[in-house]
Design a protein that fits this description.
single chain, 3 domains, hpI Integrase, Chain A
């Protein structure tokens, strides 16, 4: 039963409840009418009895799953004002960390500081990043509030005051061999080495999907969401261009890109043009009898129009970086033996791979700009599609309505090809 007391402050009668963990009293209700406060006190005591009965049968693990599913159900309601994306991480936390590494029989009223400390250290040991581990622990605050709303407990709980930053022994320790958390641009010799390492030796669709994905990132600087949403009907084989007007957001393909709905027609490098042509032929055979509209569709679902997962791309690159001596990784597995994810121990290119290649593409173009009247600021902005692209007067005028046989188009193609020289041995692509 909850310990309560009533005090008087500034003309109000204040109802307070004692926190079992801290021993401190916290205000839960106030009124100028003592009858209202007493009524609330009795109601609270009755709810405590009901809650205690419910709690006696409720474990943290099972109740947290109920909480996660309830949040998702609420988000799917059209008038909730919430997005599914904003609450779906709760279910992910439960599946990947809480269900596997939280004490399975621990009851709802048994959370303590020691329990949370042990859980935090455990999931970090199993491959959870420090940042994610903090977010998982923070989610318990929202979870406990939900439990009170459901009358599963009346306890404020340790999570109302528990903070990782106030636990010195839980603070993240940066190892000496780790680089700062920033995007590091890959160099031209490194890109060439990477391409050579992952270049397919036959017509294996998995190898070609990986190769085509990385080549496209390097030559265009596309964001992962844009690349994954790219359709074959957005590629103009006559003009040698691809139109970027869609991106994957919240798990769905949407008719917008990052730059506030702007789009661009991007000139393709001759090598990229050839690579995409080969991949199109391989993909059309692999996905028979259905013709896939997506350029980078998942090979896991042969008969579905499922985009390639960004996690898959990241893991490809982590594995390749490891093979080339640029990274040290660990394959973290679940207790049942199934593969979970690849954890970076050290990585020369720490950060999002798409940003690494985006920097490479932009720098390659700007480095080749000196003395070249074709590689104007407008042309480069159009290729990279900066946020302020819509504000640049005549940005598309130089290159979106060109005669493919015109001199300007030919000059652009030559300038673009020269900006990314000798990255792939074309002869080995046949």
């Amino acid at each position: 039963m909850a310990h309560t007391k009533v005090t008087k402050r500034h003309g109000y009668h204040v109802l307070q409840v004692k926190d079992k963990e801290t021993g401190k009293y916290k205000q839960v209700f106030k009124s100028k009418q003592i009858k209202e406060v007493n009524r609330k006190r009795v109601e609270l005591q009755n709810n405590t009895i009901k809650a205690d009965e419910a709690v006696s049968q409720r474990t943290i693990v099972d109740t947290y799953k109920e909480f996660a599913l309830d949040k998702i159900a609420m988000a799917e309601h059209p008038q909730s004002g919430m997005r599914r994306k904003s609450v779906s991480h709760y279910l992910s936390y439960h599946k990947k960390w809480i269900n596997l590494y939280f004490p399975p029989n621990l009851l709802l009223n048994q959370i303590t500081v020691k329990v949370m400390d042990a859980f935090f250290l455990k999931i970090k040991e199993k491959g959870c990043s420090h940042k994610t581990a903090v977010l998982v622990v923070k989610s318990f605050y929202t979870f406990m509030k939900w439990c009170i709303e459901q009358q599963y407990t009346t306890e404020v709980g340790v999570m109302y005051s528990y903070k990782v930053k106030n636990r010195p022994h839980l603070k993240d320790k940066v190892t000496a061999n780790m680089l700062p958390k920033k995007t590091v641009m890959i160099t031209r010799p490194e890109v060439k080495q990477l391409f050579k390492h992952i270049m397919p030796t036959d017509k294996d669709p998995h190898a070609w999907l990986k190769f085509t994905t990385v080549v496209t990132l390097a030559f265009t600087g596309l964001r992962l969401g844009e690349l994954r949403a790219l359709r074959w009907d957005r590629i103009d084989w006559n003009l040698g261009r691809m139109t970027i007007n869609q991106a994957i957001s919240e798990g769905k393909i949407k008719d917008q890109v990052k730059a506030d709905g702007s789009f661009a027609s991007v000139k393709m490098h001759s090598t990229l043009f050839k690579v995409l042509g080969i991949w199109r032929e391989i993909q059309s055979k692999y996905f028979t009898p259905r013709k896939m509209p997506l350029v980078f569709s998942s090979l896991k679902y042969v008969h579905e129009t499922t985009p390639l997962a960004d996690r898959t791309i990241n893991e490809w690159l982590k594995m390749a970086y490891c093979d080339l001596g640029w990274a040290e990784i660990e394959i973290v597995t679940y207790p049942n033996g199934k593969k979970s994810h690849i954890r970076n121990i050290s990585n020369k290119f720490d950060g999002c791979p798409s940003k690494t290649f985006r920097h490479f593409a932009a720098t390659s173009l700007t480095d080749a700009q000196a003395g070249n009247e074709i590689l104007t600021d407008n042309f480069i902005k159009g290729q990279i599609r900066h946020r302020d692209i819509r504000l640049t007067k005549g940005l598309y005028g130089d290159h979106t309505n060109l005669d493919p046989s015109g001199e300007r188009a030919a000059a652009e193609q030559e300038a673009l090809d020269n900006a990314f020289p000798d990255l792939i041995d074309i002869k080995k692509l046949n």
